[in-house]
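Re-run requested by the PI after the first attempt was lost when the workstation crashed. Everything re-entered from the original request form. Ligand of interest: iron/sulfur cluster.
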Amino acid sequence: MPWQKFLGLKVPSSQSAFLKRRYSVTTDIRSFQLCSRQYGHFAVRGYAPAHSVQIYYGTLIHQVLDRAHAHYAGLRDPETEGQFPTNQDIENYFDEVDQALRVRGVQSVRSSTQAAERKAALRRLKLFNQIEGPELYPRVRDTEYRLQSDQGDYLLYGTVDVLADSPGWLPGMKGEIWDYKGANRPEPNTEKFHQYEFQMLVYAELYRERNGYYPERAILYFLNELDTAEESQIRPPEALLEVPLDPKRIEVALYIFKSTVSDIEKCRRKDEWPEPQAELLDKNTCDICDIRWNCPAHVGKYPMRYP
Amino acid sequence: MNLQEMLAVIEEKSGRELNEEQKAVVTHGPGPLWVIAGPGSGKSEVLVLRCLKLVCIDNVTPKSIILTTFTKKAAKNIQDRLAIYKSYLDQVDKDLRNVDLFQVRVGTLHSLCNDIMQEYRYVDYQNYRLLDDIDQSLFIYEHSDLASSQPSRHLYLPFWRHFHMLVGKYSVLTGYKWGRSQNYLPNRWLRVNATVSLFNRIVQDRIDISQMRSEGGIWETLANEYEAYQNSLELNRSCDFAHLQLKFLCFLNSPSGSLFLKGDGSLYQPGIHHVLVDEYQDTNPIQEEIYLQLAKYLRHNLCVVGDDDQALYRFRGGTVDCMVNFDSACQSAWGDQVKVTQRPLSINYRSHPKIVNWCDEYIRSFSVMSKPGARVPNKSSLSSDQYWNTRRRSQGAELDNYPVVSYLVGQSSEEVANRFAEMVTGLLANGIIKDLSQCVLLLKSTRSTDNFAGPYQAALEQQEISVYNPRSRTFLQETEIQTALGALVRILDPDQTVLSRVRTQNVRRTIEGWTQTYTELADRNDDLLNYVNRAINRIEQIPANTTVTQLATQGVTEIPATIQEIFYHMISLEPFTTWQQDAERTVRLGKLSQVLESYCLLPFSGNEGSSRGNLRTERTRRGRINSGQLNHLYYSLVGLLVSEGLNDPEDEEIICPPGQFPIMTVHQAKGLEFPFVFVSNLVPDRRVGAELQLEDTMRQFQTNPSLSGLTNRDRADQDWIRFFYVAYSRAIYSLVLLTTTNEFEKQGIGFGGYVRKWFTDEVQQLT
Ligand code: SF4
């Protein structure tokens, strides 16, 4: 027998080389917190969602604002350096992005209200540009600023929309982080509110790991709140939320963060992805979830549809 | 911290000392560096340490370093190692803590091109859809005249006769082989695949299109078709992997590209100061150009690491010439005064010294490998680690007399397979190996056919050994896949009117097989049956020439009904819900959803922003899905699936699950190592392959043709020799060649280039 010739050999156990997993503050942690069942299906088992509609509005506002920043910084065209974009500029950038997204088939979830929604988006972007631009644009240091951190067993990463110098500070000092939300400001003490805050607190910690200190301020900006500013052209108080960067709260956020990661790992090991408890369900997420038809969280609520 | 201290910390923590060759690479100063690294010589480790030295000792800004790898997995591995070593250094030197190593740009060249263009919001790239292989094939099927259903025979027959090497193949769809003398065009999917090769080649080889066009005849046709393809890509804001690189080259020459390369002196825009490349032997001409551009400024700090003997990717446009001629490429890009330093990494730490010796002798045993241009000039021999035995023993190995390199011969492939499977059982039962995943069987192809994995898989399974072979291309034979597709077809084409008119027999039969599988399962699963029947009824109510839409839930009035939507409805029912509890079946269904997505996102030709996935009824008849749409689904998507087969999804994070025996292609095993390596299919078909012929005929239009004087015959043989060299050098403790008597007598390339006596002296027969 051939194997008998190998009796002099004993191969030791192989150590399997594990790669550290990567966790993104938004696409992993937030998605998992929203619904582990959905996360398991799409992020782990590799199902492809049927509609990429959710991303239309978010992508649109982020890309237009990004172009507005680049306009002022003269990154697209050196000629515009130091100039504030006009309403017409914003409209042009809007059309450019909208057109590109449409050609790619990325559309609004509500096809019937799409036109109205586009109009509202454009209006909000123009208002943002007028109200915030003059004060904010000159302070922008970087956009889509990437942050990463090695947490031992895994790597954690996130991207903040804007990194800006704090007003009154010398350039290069502590700085502010901004995150744009294509939504209204949620009621305080709701799950959503906490999750938004939580995200900024984690970013603040990542920022500290990279720079050695926390940012001066962490700001959430709710663009949909600008609807009430049309007349006054003054920022409504609801639009801007400064998240207090208390080291204690940051610690709590990190603790929650780490326990979320260990929950994900637990689910992975068992390959079981339970739906959230009834009080934690997010209606907007469920309404467009591809796997809602047989979701145990909604028995009978989403009756089957036929093409 | 200085360099010595840094190395001392790493050596202490990792328990391994760097040899002189490795140190020379890590500490190399400015200027191009050409590292010729044999298998198992620790090249990735050396790259990691070099990167660490640049950041921690030389104070190079991390963001100004680019480090490319061949696979995503390798990139993650390098990032992890950087993070681990950095944490060792942080403990010793607190000042290093604020150095953010994550800013080093580590990734595959494709992913970096994508990320960097996104980061700089390059307008010609942002909001483009990146097409993977399946997407690209479907796109070409839809958009290129070369692959259209009714092309002009007068124009295209001479064309395909010329490119006979690409289409003169057996087609699973038609069941026969197309030949040059035929008076009709090759099957559409043969043409699609050939068109993909042609277009990718044009981009990868940096072909001058206007020069090609001026040649007239078929070349003019090709040039025009290529440009039409490029236009459709742009119109539909789509970009394939080859064009991703082309766009990146354009980006580098744009104002934002120049900011990226040169920087503006700030912390945020440091420019690019160092470029480190792993696996350089598989680089193609456009990638070479990208690397030379990236290192264009400053001191040309381009460090490439690779092994010309391990080049494997000619079929993806890789040409070993970039590795072999690195010095002259640098000089022609940057001037003769540029000094390129060459460094070897020649000590193999992986394999038993007898395996190292066998590999080295093997590659030298062929005279064709000593022709100029075959290998890097003056290449040093591979040598083994003198402490190999001690090191392995300290890890728990017992190494008393055993056949290190051996062969197992049988009358037929079945006999070889059975003896092999018995041997594996014996190795495990007697504790010679601890787990089946410590072995691997390497083959040219892992398809479950008689010529390749079939007999081995059967023999192992007979011994009740579970086999891990995700690339067996048997995806379509799985029940859950057939049921899903069968139910889908039943809904869209309930009495199979459109299907019955499909001319390609194999497509029709395959689909009939699926609906058969569905019918059998629906018999036992009322919910699924009900869903399908009600869906059919619903479609029957829809007026002619209408987009099928669904009434939706709260707030959402209606959305187009897509194939993907139907899929998600179906899988919410039994038997799919039970199948989704099964780890393998659920990821397979996940992969099917990805394939359906690829298809659904496909834009119609001439209608940007449209999508193949949205269902419409017949123009003049109510209650019927548009037959054009169905035909398209059958011929394009099903045609692709049938002609190409599909692989199972693979877990990115593991090489092989414990307890299973892996069967892999040599390409899959690139960069990996296994205690026991079995290699089969030792007598390859030596005919000059299509890719080589294509490379040859296109060379006349290349912007920078390579000057190697090697013939096609030489290069075909060299490719095979390298292929086996890679296979053999994966082994740590034992290498076993599997051969039939017939192959053994033929003594093909896998046996080495010497006479049989040499082979039998070196390699022990297992009886
Ligand atoms: S329907 Fe809601 S709860 Fe159920 S999986 Fe989807 S998102 Fe989660």
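Saved to the shared folder this time. Chain A is about 40% helix and 15% strand.
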